[in-house]
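Re-run with default settings, no changes from the original entry. Doing this only to confirm the output is reproducible before filing.
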Amino acid sequence: MMTRKHRIAIVVLILIVCLLLATWLVFLLTRGESTVTQAPVVEQPPEEEVIPSRPTVSEVELEEEREVRETSSDVLTLSKTFIERYGSYSNEAAFANLRDVLPLMSKSFAAKTQKLIDGGEVPEEYYGVTTRVVTVGIEEKDETVGIATVISMAQREESFDSPQNEKVKYQEIELTFVMEDGAWKVDSANWQ
């Protein structure tokens, strides 16, 4: 049963909540009315665009650099993909690494590699290598002749007898490229 003290306390609470709501509403309504005057907006005449009739020297150089980067990136991207697949091996995969990169090779290099796959023997004890490219750089590239040379440093993790028995080494690889059927193809790969 509610006593008189409880009723008075509830009424006082309701009055306080109503007073807070009223104060909040007044604040919101007066906040929107600002006495700050805004400066008049002055329209600026539109600026005329100046477009040169012929490209400037810097634009020509920029375009040449962009073309070099695009053609170089083809060789660099191909190198990274090729090295990581070509250099990774597991006797459990039976030369799958070499089969994967056959389409990236020139016809003559692919034929030599296919002979290696066909005549290769897989060791019975576990052996695996995982290769990751650390750095890659173009040593020579001549698009008119259709040749390029790339040198790369790779990290190679070799595992003997089990995947846990691992040894890490760094090895350099040199790739030569030829332009064949309009695309760069790896013509040789030599570990150093």
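The radius of gyration is 37 Å. The chain has a mean pLDDT of 82.
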